[in-house]
Amino acid sequence: MTTYPIKFEPILQEKIWGGTKLKSLLNKKSTSDSIGESWEISGVEGHISVVNNGAYKGSSITDLIKEHKQDFVGSKNYSQFGNEFPLLIKYLDANTDLSVQVHPDDEMAKAEHNSFGKTEMWYIMDREEDATIINGFKNEKVTTNSLRAITKENVDQILNKQKVNKGDAFFIPAGKVHAIGAGVLAAEIQQTSDITYRVYDWDRVDTSGKGRELHLEQSIKAVKRDEAAANPSTENSSCSNSKVLASCPYFTSTVMDLKQPTSVDYSSKDSFVIYMCVEGSFEIKINGSIEKVSKGETVLIPANATQVFLDTQAAKVIEVYVG
Question: Which residues form the Mannose-6-phosphate isomerase cupin domain (predicted)?
């Protein structure tokens, strides 16, 4: 295949909790003032990403996998996932609190939805003062049945609320109760899945006066008290000025803090690589192809690329791959 830095057309999602930061800070094009998510790379049915640059402009990500197979995604990924792309890559703007929610693991998602499960991670790009997330239960004394009785008055006694700062990263395995709070701008990496079970939605209603559906029984079934942790110590960073944020069976992510032009060797990596620019900008050069990547943009490097050159004086980049 023609190997170059591939960009896709963002798929913007209006949300009841969305705002304007994806437009004002990340330059996403929309007339809506409630854009909650920008799906940067997606293989989710009904929301398939389409290339917007270079030789494959107009092709879908599914077209590229079918045509180029392991050259595009890597041998192991193609063997495991076939023509399905294994990750969903997003930017997210929480203007108000997201619902308290939980996602099913692979086994439950396959049985009930014929889908992948949803393990994910967040990187906090920016946050307003005192912004928080919900990250699991408050303590071991809280039972899963407590999820049936959450109110605004007792949510802090049931769930673990913590402040966040720019540059924080959080690994959210399937089965962990969680929520992103108001004022958070985040990059999100997750399995290809759009399955969310709502536990509690802050008593809010839509324009017709109706609350959104909750999924309490499915949530309680999906919850795991011994959520698996990511293990960053088992992976080596791709270059000296990066550190691993999370490594799990579904993805590995690192943050690259680039302060000078940097060359990265991918000759031994059997996977596509995704770059999310979370600060600054850079030019990426592969086999003579050059693409500028600005804050809020995302680029995919096909698996058959061996050497990538990043030309910058200041950029922070989330690097993501599988396997």
Answer: 246-320
